[in-house]
Target: Butyrophilin subfamily 1 member A1-like
Amino acid sequence: MKETFVCFCLVFFGARLVMASDTITVNCSKNIIMGKYGSSVVLPCWLTPVTDAENLEIRWYRPDQFKNPLLLYQNRKVITDLVEMYINRSSLTLRNPQSAGLKQGDVSLRLDNIGLSDIGIFHCYVSGDKSYNSNTVKLSLTALGSFPHLSLEHRHDSVNLSCSSCGWFPKPSLLWKSTNEKGDLSERQSPIYSEQENGLFCIYSWVILSSSVSNSMTCLVTLSEDEKRNVSLEIGAGLPVENSGVWKILFTLALLCVLALVGIFLFRFYRKYKSKSEYKEVCRDEQPNDFSMEELWKETVNIILDKESCKKEFLSFNKQDDAVRDNDEAAKIYKGFGFPYELCVHGRNKFSSGRAYWEVGLKQTNVPCKKSWLIGVAKASYTISNNKEDFSPGKGFWFLCSDPENGLHVNTEPEIVLPKNITPESIGVLLDFSKSELSFYNVTDSAHIFTMKIKRNSQEELVPLFNPGIGDKAPLKINPLRKIQAEPEGNASGSDANQHV
Ligand SMILES: *[C@@H]1O[C@H](CO)[C@@H](O)[C@H](O)[C@H]1NC(C)=O
Ligand SMILES: *[C@@H]1O[C@H](CO)[C@@H](O)[C@H](O)[C@H]1NC(C)=O
Ligand SMILES: *[C@@H]1O[C@H](CO)[C@@H](O)[C@H](O)[C@H]1NC(C)=O
Ligand SMILES: *[C@@H]1O[C@H](CO)[C@@H](O)[C@H](O)[C@H]1NC(C)=O
Model:
């Protein structure tokens, strides 16, 4: 009976009932309470005049749910398990640190882990022997999305830089900023929104940039002055494949380069008498860092995997400890594809100066080329965390990796996704302390893939890092360098190339 009457009053007299002198008034914050997605909020309500609420009934409920309060305080007990979605998320709380709580009429509600379904009105109803009253508070929230994710795609004589970010509420805006006035941003996509399963928004856009103009591009996603995320990328000097202008020419030159290499191996015996500049000139024109595979091979170190330091129960090694892949136990725990970070294994070698080069094979005979893998370096004191964010340069990890979904990417900040047309079967890694750089090469095409800067604490030693990923048939295998290609067995120069560390 009483309930029906209350509902009636709410509808016709609004939230505030003014009653006789000893009556209770529920006084709530009139401002919309703004919360952050996933965090906690306080919905402040209190009784005026100050009244001890310990012996009253307090009912917090969503519109039209008087009978199913998310929090009910009755007979001096709090009941919070009446509504499934508020179990473990609601409690009575203090509206400010000075509040003396229920005793002085503070009936505020605390909500934890707020989500989109919490947006809207909350009713607070308080009743005693002589009177009852109710009022409402309005809750809204914002969700700060992820750092934008940039990816590059090379086109004829331009690059297509795209930016995406998810986890926003409400819809954010997206702005491209260029440091170069001449950077022509005329061709660009106005933001495209999509809704995630949880109701939060993703935003996406791209711009076409001339690859001849160097530029620093920023993708800025904004909700409000305080809620924005941006990432920047240097285009030009730092382009992953710098002179990727015309693919056809590049391909032809790469072919020439390979032919030149083959020639060099065939005439290796005569190499002393021949000038090396010929070979270099062919390559210099289209390789960004003026490298030659032959120079790299001189820096080769012999890598042995340290199988004592990894999750042996999930990894299988060959006898020589230079090949590794996931095993059946791993398949039981880690489903699908990709590279669970727990499957990382490092080399026994430690580096702190000079240059070191090694190669890792991703393709073995009779099995498809690996799609899930990680190759790079880590500081020797690294630890494996459950948090993906921890595998960052800041935490001492630098790597190139691949998974079937995202293709090739490097863990720069921001993460850079590499052009889809690179599908290496063998990766060369050059760790160069003189330049503080880590470079990756596509050995099959003798092509540079990407160079990343390494900032480490001085003297911190680095170890080679590998992860064979999950679900690939092919092992990840350290190439025994220069013994495979065009190298007559027992050639003395073969051991030159295999410096042990
Ligand atoms: C609500 O509380 C505020 C501050 O405590 C007070 O100024 C105001 O008069 C109250 N309103 C009512 C209707 O009691
Ligand atoms: C609420 O918390 C208890 C104790 O932490 C837990 O056992 C229970 O599963 C939780 N219930 C829900 C619906 O989350
Ligand atoms: C730029 O790349 C995105 C995919 O990353 C694609 O959807 C878009 O169509 C491209 N723009 C142009 C002009 O090719
Ligand atoms: C991008 O964010 C950084 C802080 O993370 C800030 O210093 C910088 O001004 C921002 N750039 C733009 C264009 O908003």
Q: What stands out?
A: Confidence is low (pLDDT under 50) at residues 1-21, 237-253, 269-287, 483-501. The first strand starts at residue 25 and ends at 28. The CA atoms of residues 93 and 284 lie 70 Å apart. The first helix runs from residue 2 to 13.
